[in-house]
Structures are given as structure tokens and as C-alpha cells.
């Protein structure tokens, strides 16, 4: 059996980093972790070939070779998924599909022969057995959640690691919280399931043996969902692993209550974590209550951000406008919060209702849905009818005002300076590679000479050189990120 593992293209989005990747001549941010994990679950005797359309093209030669095409996709990849499935169908290749996009809206893909939905650890084995016996069904689904301690390591050897800016790894699934707009609990449940430490170390050893020296992203929706096990088992092992390896750093996603656990922050710092993404959403208490973001209520969110950054963990954050409780003041309040906290990477989007969420079901009952969301959190779109009595023109202009402000060179670089004045330098740094030298040279020319941010760029580089020299690589990285964020905002909204 010859199997193509096809990963559709990401459009030009906030998190695609397409404009940033050009500075280091990389094709994509991460390899497709889910598909490579599925590849490891397929029969060993099958021939497998990865086609990540973000890094390479799907060719006629690939399609002539293949008996089956296995697809995995996020919602934001919907358009590309339709196109690629059409190519496979036309070529007579049988199609199997799973992952978040197909789990939430499989009925929209009529050309798919078999859907293997929800968690593949449960639904893939019966599909493979039925396929072997010539009686494979159209849909395999389950309400159960897998024991990820039995999940095999991804087949990283199928991916050309040199094409990617970072690697990815998964320690947990599920989240203990239940934010109304979030589909994580719908997909993976509220109980935080963890792999065993030995699995994670083995995957890191595989990266390392393949020559990877750089960042590894823990894709967990909330790494600290099971703090006890994290502190007792995984982090001590990562600290020990770092003692025998060089050039590997980590980033991940966490909830804001990390700020109240000094010991945990210190352990993450010692283990090589340097960046965490936090769902701040809004500084408005009523809107936090509305969406069920209880972990963010009754606390000084701005001070929590500062505490985390002083511990050596740069905070990236997501923000939302469009809650029913929002008033015209929310736009300036979001701007003020982002600027004063020094959150450089601030993703601000309109409220969207993903399929399967409590928000989706509530708005469906209220007749306030406008079809399916795009899956892009920062393209200025929404699939809901607002109910906050705000003039639509004021709402649209307010949202634009946030983006114009926070991603203008003056204000963006101000946030970098705010961060650098209190950010604890990372203990573990990535290995300096040719791509980093290339980033310095290309950013100096494209941003420092051609860019409208040239004054701010050189001011940052000089200040960092004289005051925080150890942060110079981060200064270059954040300058390049700012270029990407402005390009995306201009494309979709401004």
C-alpha cells in the first residue's frame, strides 16, 4: 500500500508567519505533528510519503504513486483542503480524512471516501481492520478519549526538518477550563491527559539525533493543566536532559494562573522554556464572566503578565473584542493593556463561535449565527451577530483602531522596549546557525533601510547592543515578527 500523507496549505494568517519565514528562508513554521503521528499508527509494511503543501507541492508523480491519501487539517486550511481533495479525487486516489476540520464539518466534504474522526488512537485501528477485510465504512467516530500514554512517536523521518523554523511536540490533551468560545474541551475533553515522561524524552532524542538544534513548541493547549505531574515528572527530566544537550529551547501555551506559582515558573525557566502564549482575551471583568473565563477573573492581569516576564518567560497573548458586554470603551482599554504590559505578540480578533462550543450552541438557539467561522482568529471576520447595542460602524472602526495602534512601528517597538526592561534573559539559548546570520542581514536591509520602521529598528538594535546584548537575537526576531503582523493586518483589515 502506497500512502500520501497530505497537509493542506495555511493561508496568510497571524500565526502562519509567512512574511517572517522569508527572512530565514524557511518554508513553514512547524511540520504536521498530527499527520506524522498517524503515520506511526499505520502498518509498518506500507510505504508512506509526506506532502506538506506549506513546504512542497503535490505533484502528478505523487498521485500516480499513491493508493490512498490521508488528510489532516485545521479549520483555517479549509480552502486548500477542498482543492487538494479535488486533485486526489480526479486522479482516482482514495481519500481518508481526520483532524479538527473534518471532525467539526465532515459533511462538507463529499469527495472523501472515509472519515476517521476524533482521536485517531481510537478510530484508526477499526478502520484499518475493516480496510484489510474489504468492508471499510464511510465514518469512524467516538465520544471517548484516548490514553495518550500509548500514542506512538511521530515518524519524523518523513519530514525534511530543514524546511521548518521549529519542531513540535505534545505532552497533554484536554484543558480543565471551559471557556465558552473555545473548542478545545469539545475536541479533547476537560480532563488533562498526559504522556509519560519517557515518551517526551524519546521524541526529543529523535529530534536531536536528526540534527535539530532550535526551538521546540509544546503544542498543548494548556501545558500546566496538570501542574502536579508537570512539576514532579516532566520538568525535572527536561532540566536533566538539557544538561546533556545544547541548542534546544521550548515554548508553549499556559493559563494566566502560572503567575501565582513561582516554583513552576523557575522550573520552566531552568528547563529551557522562554515563551508562553496566554489567553488574556479582555481586561473587562463583565466580558470575562460572560465567556466563562473564570481563571482570569478577580486578579491583576497586567501584574500577572509582568511577573511571568520577569521570570524569564516572554508572554504572547490572545485578545478578543465583540462580547455582548463590550462597550465602545473596550477598544482603548485593549490598546492600553497591551501597551503597558509589553506584550509584543498580541493577537487581537473578533469573537468567533467554533462548531461544538457552548458559544456556538447558545447563539444557534438565539438565531445569531452567520454560518461557519473562517478559523483565522485575526482576519477581521466573525460568524456571529453582535448583541451589544454598538453601532456596527463604530465596532468595525474600533477594531481597526486597535490594530493600527498596536502594530504601528512606534507603538510596536515601544512594547519591545517595555519587555526588554523587565524580561529575565533566557538561561538556555538556541544554537547560532546560518539562518540567524541571514535574519540579521536581511532585516538590516529590509527593515533598517527600506522599511518605514527604520528609525525604530535601529534605535532598538543600538539600545539592545549597549544595554541587553544577550537579547539581540530576540530583538531581531521580534522586529521581523512586527513586519509580518503589519503585513497580515494590512491584507485583511487595514
What does this structure look like?
By secondary structure, the protein is an alpha/beta fold. The chain folds into 3 domains: 139 residues, Rossmann fold; 255 residues, Aldolase class I (TIM Barrel); 59 residues. Helix 5 links the parallel strand 4 and strand 5. The chain is globular, with a radius of gyration of 22 Å.
Q: Outline, from the CA principal axes? A: globular
Cα(first) to Cα(last) distance is: 49 Å
**How many domains would you count in the coordinates?**
3
Percent range of helical residues: 40-55%
For this structure, what is the CATH class of the largest domain? Answer: Alpha Beta
CATH superfamily of the largest domain: Aldolase class I
CATH fold descriptor of the largest domain: TIM Barrel
Q: In DSSP terms, counting alpha (H) and pi (I) runs of 4 or more, how many helices?
A: 19
- Radius of gyration, in angstroms, nearest whole number: 22 Å
**Strand order across the largest sheet:** 2-1-3-4-5-6
Low-confidence sequence ranges: none
**Topology, number of strands:** 14
Which structural class matches the secondary elements?
alpha/beta
The largest sheet, given as strand count, sense and whether it forms a barrel, is: 6 strands, parallel
Strand content: 5-15%
Q: Architecture of the largest domain, CATH level 2?
A: Alpha-Beta Barrel
The overall pLDDT, averaged over residues, is: 96
Amino acid at each position: 500500500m502506497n500512502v500520501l500523507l497530505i497537509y493542506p496549505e495555511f493561508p496568510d494568517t497571524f500565526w502562519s508567519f509567512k512574511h517572517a519565514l522569508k527572512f530565514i528562508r524557511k518554508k513553514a513554521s512547524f511540520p504536521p505533528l498530527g499527520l506524522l503521528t498517524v503515520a506511526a499508527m499505520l502498518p509498518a509494511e506500507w510505504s508512506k510519503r509526506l506532502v506538506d503543501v506549506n513546504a512542497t507541492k503535490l505533484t502528478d508523480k505523487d498521485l500516480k504513486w499513491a493508493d490512498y491519501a490521508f488528510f489532516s487539517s485545521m479549520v483555517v486550511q479549509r480552502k486548500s483542503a477542498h482543492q487538494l481533495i479535488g486533485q486526489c479525487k480526479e486522479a482516482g486516489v482514495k481519500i481518508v480524512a481526520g483532524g479538527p476540520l473534518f471532525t467539526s464539518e465532515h459533511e462538507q466534504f463529499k469527495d472523501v471516501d472515509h472519515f476517521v474522526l476524533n482521536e485517531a488512537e481510537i478510530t484508526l485501528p477499526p478502520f484499518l481492520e475493516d480496510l484489510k477485510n474489504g468492508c471499510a465504512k464511510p465514518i469512524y467516530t467516538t465520544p471517548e478519549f484516548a490514553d495518550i500514554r500509548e500514542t506512538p512517536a511521530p515518524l519524523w523521518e518523513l519530514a525534511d526538518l530543514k524546511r521548518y523554523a521549529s519542531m513540535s511536540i505534545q505532552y497533554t490533551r484536554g484543558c480543565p477550563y471551559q471557556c465558552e468560545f473555545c473548542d478545545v474541551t469539545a475536541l479533547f475533553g476537560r480532563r488533562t491527559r498526559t504522556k509519560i515522561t519517557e515518551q517526551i524524552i524519546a521524541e526529543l532524542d529523535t529530534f536531536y539525533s536528526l540534527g535539530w538544534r532550535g526551538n521546540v513548541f509544546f503544542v498543548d493547549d494548556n501545558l500546566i493543566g496538570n501542574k502536579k505531574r508537570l512539576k514532579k515528572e516532566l520538568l525535572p527530566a527536561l532540566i536533566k536532559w538539557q544538561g546533556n544537550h545544547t541548542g534546544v529551547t521550548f515554548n508553549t501555551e499556559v493559563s494566566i494562573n502560572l503567575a501565582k506559582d513561582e516554583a513552576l515558573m523557575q522550573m520552566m525557566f531552568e528547563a529551557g522554556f522562554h515563551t508562553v502564549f496566554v489567553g488574556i482575551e479582555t481586561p473587562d471583568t463583565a466580558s470575562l464572566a460572560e465567556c466563562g473565563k473564570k481563571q482570569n477573573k478577580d486578579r491583576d492581569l497586567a501584574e500577572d503578565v509582568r511577573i511571568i516576564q520577569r521570570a524569564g518567560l516572554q508572554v504572547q497573548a490572545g485578545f478578543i473584542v465583540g462580547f455582548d458586554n463590550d462597550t465602545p470603551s473596550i477598544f482603548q482599554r485593549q490598546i492600553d493593556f497591551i501597551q503597558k504590559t509589553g506584550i509584543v505578540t498580541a493577537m487581537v480578533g473578533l469573537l468567533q463561535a467554533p462548531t461544538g462550543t457552548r458559544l456556538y450552541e447558545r447563539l444557534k438557539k438565539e438565531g445569531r449565527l452567520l454560518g461557519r467561522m473562517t478559523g483565522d482568529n485575526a482576519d477581521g471576520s466573525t460568524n456571529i451577530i453582535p448583541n451589544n447595542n454598538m453601532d456596527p460602524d463604530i465596532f468595525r472602526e474600533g477594531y481597526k483602531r486597535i490594530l493600527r495602534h498596536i502594530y504601528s512601528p512606534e507603538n510596536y517597538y515601544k512594547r519591545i522596549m517595555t519587555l526588554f526592561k523587565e524580561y529575565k534573559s533566557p538561561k538556555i539559548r538556541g544554537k547560532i546557525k546560518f539562518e540567524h546570520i541571514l535574519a540579521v542581514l536581511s532585516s538590516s536591509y529590509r527593515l533598517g533601510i527600506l522599511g518605514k520602521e527604520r528609525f525604530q529598528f535601529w534605535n532598538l538594535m543600538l539600545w539592545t547592543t549597549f544595554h541587553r546584548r544577550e537579547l539581540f537575537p530576540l530583538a531581531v526576531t521580534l522586529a521581523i515578527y512586527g513586519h509580518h503582523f503589519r503585513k497580515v493586518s494590512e491584507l485583511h483589515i487595514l
